[in-house]
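Recap from last week: sequence in, structure out.
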Amino acid sequence: MTPVDDLAFVGDPPLLRPEADIVYVSCLFTWDKAETGRLAQAWHKHYLNVMVSGPAWDNAGHDFVPGLFVGSGVTVTSRGCNNQCPWCLAWKREGKLRETAIHPGNNLIDNNLLQCSKAHLGKVFDMLRQQRQIKLSGGLDSRLLTNSIADDLRSLRIKEMFFGCDTKEAVRPLARAKAMLDGFTMDQLRAYVLLAYDGETILEAEERLEAVWDLGFMPFAQLYQPPDKYIEYSKEWRKLAKNWSRPARTKALHGG
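Predicted structure tokens:
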């Protein structure tokens, strides 16, 4: 996801630095905010204007500029989300869903693409039909999938698309979605699976992961991290997440 052009840097200023009127220091995770401040001071030694922002600083994500803070091919066509999932910060930071300008790209990272209007979705799919190796990485809401949308998805050259299955209640709508997604393989069908939220046990998490696998989706396990602190999980939790976040490892565990 990180840009790799000549004006993008990770970490401290290099010895050879480009001329610039302003430097943007972007921070994604809240537990990196202290490091963001240190980096801002380091860059300020060489540049007068240094701006610190990003999701960790509750930036609402206004106009999307391709390639500015994300790599080539990554695009966003909407911001915010109308859901208010307690573990998610998208709706708190960006507010209700709003549609934005559509820039070409093959990796779509909208928070909740399927909440967009039919007209907007049509334009997004038209843009994606011009792309190859398409990734829908933002996470699709299986409750909003329709047969018409499934047909549009089949018209695209999709490499992988992610759905969400963050609670046990999400398994049933995921099964409903799978019934509409015939023709797609498990390599194309992925599912984000949040682990260890709100007192969930390892056994409960493993049962949900197996349910997602049995439906024909490749799980991508993610251990819950709150915004105000970093949880150091046990060896057992880390092993579970590792086994279910690497497709080759997950397939090997199931004899594939």
